[in-house]
Amino acid sequence: MNKPDIYIESARLQSAIENHLGMEGSLIFDFANESNQTKLNLITVNKRHNQSFLFHAVMGTDKLDALEKMLAYAKTYREQDHSYTIQWTEPTRKELHTSYFRAKNMYEALDKLYYGRDVQAITVFSVVMNPIA
Q1: Same domain? 74 vs 85
Q2: Suppose 83 and one of 10, 16, 74, 130 were both cysteines; which one would form an S-S bond, judging by CB atoms 3.0 to 4.6 Å apart?
Q3: CA trace torsion 98, 18, 105, 120 (10° rounding)
Q4: pLDDT tens digits for 93-123?
Q5: 57 closest CA partner among 26, 32, 78
Q6: Is residue 21 domain-shared with residue 66, that is, in the same domain?
Q7: Residue 45 belongs to what domain range?
Q8: Each residue's pLDDT tens digit, 32-44
Q9: How many angstroms separate the CA atoms of 25 and 15, rounded?
């Protein structure tokens, strides 16, 4: 059996993730090697307030395995994680922003908000776990 073209398969999986989440053009697939594994940080870009946030992170044996795990998560995350609403502002601006996250707990939701930035870059006013619909 022929080994799949890693670039074609990677593009197919990334497209499937974008399509499933309805976020075409708003996702960054950030890969890193950690302890002989591949970590995939899926980052969302919010064009309204020009900020990026962590959607989810997975570990895989390689890029394709990590993408397959991310696609599986994308298909089931609404059943696995709680919904949180976080209200925040940037210290240099006084506009209040509202962002929504799926996470196992409040701390994970805050980690997703603060991902890739200094904790002084954002002031959080409230974190609310949303009721189950």
Answers
A1: no
A2: 130
A3: -50
A4: 888 999 999 999 999 999 999 999 999 999 9
A5: 32
A6: yes
A7: 1-79
A8: 999 999 999 999 9
A9: 10
